[in-house]
Amino acid sequence: MAEPDTLRRFLFEGAAVRGVMVHLDATWRAVLERHDYPEPLRELLGEMMAAVALLSATLKFEGRMIAQLQGSGPVTLLVVEASSERTLRAIAHWNREIPAGDLQDILGDGRLVITLEPSDGAERYQGIVELTGSTLADAIVHYLERSEQLDTGLWLAAGKDSTAGLLVQKLPDSAEGEDADFWNRISQLTATLKRKELLELDVRELIHRLYHEEDVRLFESEPMCFRCSCSRERVGNMLRSLGKAEVQSILEEQGEVEVACEFCNQKYQYDAVDTEQLFASDVAHDIPPTTQ
Length: 292
Ligand SMILES: [Zn+2]
Hints:
Layout: E1 6-12, E2 17-24, H1 26-34, H2 39-57, E3 63-71, E4 75-83, E5 87-94, H3 103-107, E6 110-118, E7 125-130, H4 136-147, E8 152-158, E9 163-170, H5 178-190, H6 195-200, H7 203-211, E10 216-218, E11 222-223, E12 225-226, H8 232-242, H9 244-254, E13 257-260, E14 267-270, H10 272-286
Parallel strand pairs: 5-12
Antiparallel strand pairs: 1-2, 1-10, 1-11, 2-9, 3-4, 3-6, 4-5, 6-7, 8-9, 13-14
The protein binds zinc ion.
């Protein structure tokens, strides 16, 4: 049995190849409970959550990783956000019936956008590639080859109650030659992995099953959970960016301003006094220095 809602990193001793495995259970169900997604999209979103958890774990990085699949339809948008605290949130938009099919059938012409938002306020990084390949794993591997020049193998599987992924990657500082042979062997061994094994096997069993002749160092498991990063403060900032006139007109029309977070369905309400306060702090900053 796989250990629920955990991420585990591992290293092949003496070789410049690393791996990460993730298993999402309650984290995945928390996303499904909030929105009712049709079947082909549900599976894609589950795979994307596993993939983003894996990718965020390959970076030494404090902050948020936001991965978006933007399509021309039937699915128009998938967003998965991972934080360096190992939390995830996700949503998807679609505009018509979704055929069972490959990535291109579900998203049409599309692109993958990955944004890193460091928590220390440093500049955002964004990488964009056109969607290629028939699976999400293909598209992400292509992204990593293009943007990071990293040889990566990625296996993803989403079921009704859990979703899982395995990533193996040649480390950036690895030398050619011997390492290339080792990498090819690991890639071939990993490619024998079956969907059911990925979803059901514990990481130890899985590593034994795939790489029993290799010396693998397994790191401590890290708990994963669903958590939304929305807050009254962030919603307030968003309302401020709309401008006072816009917010006032909503207030007059509706009697209050209500903003619902799409990721977690949390509702934030602002009455006349609240909106006054939102903009009052702006006014204080915007007053030009008085000439006395
Ligand atoms: Zn939220």
